[in-house]
Amino acid sequence: LAVKGVQALSPYQPGKPIDELARELGLKPDNIIKLASNENPLGPSPKALAAVKGALDELCRYPDGNGFDLKQALSARYGVAPAQITLGNGSNDVLEVITRCFADASSEVVFSQYAFAVYPLVTQAIGAKGVSVPARDYGHDLNAMVEAITDRTALVFVANPNNPTGTVHGAEAIESFLARIPPRVLVVLDEAYCEYLQGEGYVDGLSLLKRYPNLIVTRTFSKAWGLASLRAGYSVSSPDIANVLNRVRQPFNVDFLALVAATAVLSDEDYLRRSCEVNAAGMKQLESAFNEMGLEYIPSAGNFIAVDVGDQAADINQSLLEQGVIVRPIGGYGLPRHLRVSIGLPEENARFIEALARALDTSS
Ligand code: PMP
């Protein structure tokens, strides 16, 4: 039925919704915690919530297809021009539009082993050849990625920090990588988790745009900004690239409530600070529990952590589900011994740790 690339596609596997698990296991939804999709455990920002409530009367109107207010707010916050921004229905949408605009069936698209699942998916969907480069210590082997570039390479995807491994490269490594990429090849630096980076490790892809016109930085409102359900993301690039992307994206790809909420949340500094604090504390809580339990984990710069629970990961995951804890098995990413758990509130993390201890006990 479908074209070749599409026939061979397996769909993106999202974390199980709470209601579905409740039905399957006969549990009450209130007794289930979901730490599977790298969502913000704080609930939405009060400023975003108030803005959405105040906007409901406008639901009969089309949204602003150019996202004027949101682009102004992004421009003011990050010092980029509105003409550099392309808005998307989540950053996934932008990743897909980028791939459609700049690669075709004759192209190769380079990404890392254990890279975010959407890169191979959008590559395959257009019939391009995905080139998966073996990882190094679970992270991107940037040198090997440069070496994987051929005359046919159109795009290179780098997630920094990466999902599902949480690995991150510092500013120097990213910059020397970019310096070695031929200017005709576009680099997508996916910074979905950049807000969680703190202190010295902080890499700001936006600061590199002037020097590297072939760079596209993508970001999202789904993680630290806590708006995953509304689907708002964006890319920042040269105005020429943005102009191409804006020609191809759907005219109203970001809905009205998403625009309103994203614009409002950008001024909620307190929410962003709390998101990062809760995440840093939760990361410590999980790391020390894993250390005590003798479990190895991949040190993570995101809002999630991948822990090695051994050969029985599928059974452990099943036991966690039966205890009402949803995490993400990442065998599909080539990490069959690991489970990826999103950082929750302290009590959610504690419940996960208890459930994991019980699951490990019964499996041994
Ligand atoms: N990039 C990475 C690395 C991600 O982990 C995610 C979310 N899982 C996204 C992009 C897409 O996020 P969204 O579409 O919600 O903006």
From TrEMBL:
Q: Which Pfam families match?
A: Aminotran_1_2
What reaction does this enzyme carry out catalytically? L-histidinol phosphate + 2-oxoglutarate = 3-(imidazol-4-yl)-2-oxopropyl phosphate + L-glutamate
Pathway-wise, it operates in: Amino-acid biosynthesis; L-histidine biosynthesis; L-histidine from 5-phospho-alpha-D-ribose 1-diphosphate: step 7/9
Q: How does it assemble?
A: Homodimer.
EC numbers listed for it are 2.6.1.9
- InterPro entries linked: Aminotrans_II_pyridoxalP_BS, Aminotransferase_I/II_large, HisP_aminotrans, HistidinolP_aminotransfase, PyrdxlP-dep_Trfase, PyrdxlP-dep_Trfase_major, PyrdxlP-dep_Trfase_small
**UniProt protein name:** Histidinol-phosphate aminotransferase
Q: Which GO terms describe its molecular function?
A: transaminase activity
Obligatory cofactor(s): pyridoxal 5'-phosphate
Kindly give the PANTHER family that the UniProt entry links to this protein: HISTIDINOL-PHOSPHATE AMINOTRANSFERASE (PTHR43643:SF3), HISTIDINOL-PHOSPHATE AMINOTRANSFERASE 2 (PTHR43643)
Under the heading SUPFAM superfamilies, the entry gives: PLP-dependent transferases
Class in the EC hierarchy, top level: transferase
Keyword field contains ATP-binding: no
Keywords of the record, alphabetical order, are: Amino-acid biosynthesis, Aminotransferase, Histidine biosynthesis, Pyridoxal phosphate, Transferase
**What is the name of the gene encoding this protein?**
hisC
